[in-house]
Amino acid sequence: MSLAKKMSLRHEKDIAETLGLRVQPGSGNQWANQGDAAGDRTRQRFAFTVDCKATRGESIGVSASMWEKIVMQSGGERPALALRWYGDDGLRIVRHDLVVVSLDDFVEVLEGT
Asked: Tens digit of pLDDT for each residue in 37-61?
């Protein structure tokens, strides 16, 4: 298995476990299970559908079309992009873990509404 695939699978699993989401089969390539990890708005106050991006490099590009894709795939859940930089090929070191959400969703989380 390639390093890129290992990073992707590990990141998706970690995000799902950390945020209480389910990993989507096939990394969201099925019409009924979009995104890499998703929540359930009937059981979670802030349910997110997340697209995960991981690298060993120095940058991860985020584009308007990438954001628009996860917004469409979220199907009523809150969209998010999870970005991870690994520090070693063994995936033991995580240099940075970031999550991109809309300003409106961030404000709602901060306000607890």
From this structure: 876 665 667 788 999 999 999 999 9
Q: Alpha-carbon distance 52 to 96, whole Å?
A: 13
Of the two residues 35 and 2, the one the predictor is more confident about is 2
- For residue 46, what are the CA distances in angstroms to 11, 26, 36, 43, 70? 20, 24, 17, 9, 16
Q: What is the pLDDT of residue 21?
A: 86
- Number of neighbouring beta carbons within 10 Å of residue 17: 11
For residue 108, CA distances in Å to 3, 18, 26, 39, 46 come to 37, 20, 31, 17, 9
Query: Which tokens go with 32?
Result: 């009924």
